[in-house]
From TrEMBL:
<comment type="pathway">
    <text>Protein modification; protein lipoylation via endogenous pathway; protein N(6)-(lipoyl)lysine from octanoyl-[acyl-carrier-protein]: step 1/2.</text>
</comment>
<dbReference type="InterPro" id="IPR045864">
    <property type="entry name" value="aa-tRNA-synth_II/BPL/LPL"/>
</dbReference>
<keyword id="KW-0808">Transferase</keyword>
<dbReference type="GO" id="GO:0033819">
    <property type="term" value="F:lipoyl(octanoyl) transferase activity"/>
</dbReference>
<dbReference type="GO" id="GO:0009249">
    <property type="term" value="P:protein lipoylation"/>
</dbReference>
<comment type="function">
    <text>Catalyzes the transfer of endogenously produced octanoic acid from octanoyl-acyl-carrier-protein onto the lipoyl domains of lipoate-dependent enzymes. Lipoyl-ACP can also act as a substrate although octanoyl-ACP is likely to be the physiological substrate.</text>
</comment>
<dbReference type="Pfam" id="PF21948">
    <property type="entry name" value="LplA-B_cat"/>
</dbReference>
<protein>
    <recommendedName>
        <fullName>lipoyl(octanoyl) transferase</fullName>
        <ecNumber>2.3.1.181</ecNumber>
    </recommendedName>
</protein>
<feature type="domain" description="BPL/LPL catalytic">
    <location>
        <begin position="1"/>
        <end position="117"/>
    </location>
</feature>
<feature type="active site" description="Acyl-thioester intermediate">
    <location>
        <position position="78"/>
    </location>
</feature>
<keyword id="KW-0012">Acyltransferase</keyword>
<dbReference type="InterPro" id="IPR000544">
    <property type="entry name" value="Octanoyltransferase"/>
</dbReference>
<dbReference type="InterPro" id="IPR004143">
    <property type="entry name" value="BPL_LPL_catalytic"/>
</dbReference>
<feature type="site" description="Lowers pKa of active site Cys">
    <location>
        <position position="44"/>
    </location>
</feature>
């Protein structure tokens, strides 16, 4: 449940939601022991970085969908300079619609965290 005050559980659950989203696209993602995030083989496709203050989380995750991977050559992503990154576009050899991935992730997130999505009205967003 979300009442659980366990950061490691929360991170592992985010990884599970990403893996379920990838599976719905026919892609096998996995966790690697000793690392945070989701991998496809030896390449990282999703990173997670959260902050917590009074048990409220901020920041989140990054799933490389149509990401220009050339920028990763300029940084030491997650301190893993020797590891490669990938994207759904690379893995599937075709561009994936971001709206489709968002919907798949929301559904996977709700499944893992046992929640029902609710569409916010413009009034609620203010």
């Amino acid at each position: 449940t979300l009442d659980k005050k366990d950061i490691h559980w929360y991170i592992r659950s985010l990884e599970e939601a990403i893996i379920k989203s990838l599976a719905r696209l026919g892609v096998r993602g996995e966790c690697k022991k000793g690392y945070t995030g989701v991998w496809i083989g030896e390449e990282k496709i999703a990173s997670i970085g959260i902050g917590v203050k009074r048990w409220v989380t901020y920041h989140g995750l990054a799933l490389n969908v149509t990401t220009d991977l050339s920028y990763f050559s300029l940084i030491n992503s997650c301190g893993l300079q020797e590891k490669k990154v990938t994207s759904l576009t690379e893995v599937l050899s075709s561009k994936v619609k971001m709206d489709r991935v968002k919907t798949l992730f929301v559904n996977s997130f709700c499944e893992v965290f046992k929640r029902t999505p609710k569409l916010m009205t413009d009034f609620e967003k203010q």
